[in-house]
TrEMBL record:
<protein>
    <submittedName>
        <fullName>WbqC family protein</fullName>
    </submittedName>
</protein>
<dbReference type="InterPro" id="IPR014985">
    <property type="entry name" value="WbqC"/>
</dbReference>
<dbReference type="Pfam" id="PF08889">
    <property type="entry name" value="WbqC"/>
</dbReference>
Length: 130
């Protein structure tokens, strides 16, 4: 009789830019479930991210993308829509650059964010590459 392998499952609501703790949780899990059939919450990380100053993590600025909620407060995460995709793509490119260009890791972050910004902007050639 073979031993059963213990499996772990991570369940998380989508975030605009997941925090490192979220990425670590997803990396460590055998199964990853995207919980997008719950209410969109405006004061959460679903459409915004906190960008900390490199040498002072207590100082930060919000990177937010405007959303349209077709069903008002009852809108599920999966039904939320970007209100202005081109503007959101610009913000995804500009604000992280302003905050982190001086970091030795900027090029890695920029390389990861570039296809995301193109997808958000609606560039169909890059869909599915994020």
């Amino acid at each position: 009789m073979s031993a059963l392998r213990v499996r772990s499952c991570a369940i998380h609501q989508p975030n605009l830019l997941p925090r490192l703790s979220t990425l670590a949780k997803l990396y460590a899990a055998d199964i990853w479930v995207v919980l997008d059939d719950v209410q969109f919450v405006r004061r959460d990380y679903q459409h915004r991210a906190r960008l900390a100053v490199l040498d002072n993590p207590q100082q930060y600025q919000w990177l937010s993308v405007e959303t349209h909620l077709p069903h008002g407060r009852a809108t599920l995460i999966r039904d939320a829509q970007l209100a202005y995709p081109q503007r959101a793509a610009r913000r995804l490119g500009q604000l992280p650059a302003q905050h982190y260009r001086a970091s030795p890791y900027w090029q890695l972050l920029h390389t990861a964010l570039e296809p995301v910004a193109r997808t958000v902007a609606g560039d169909r050639r890059h869909r599915g590459r994020c």
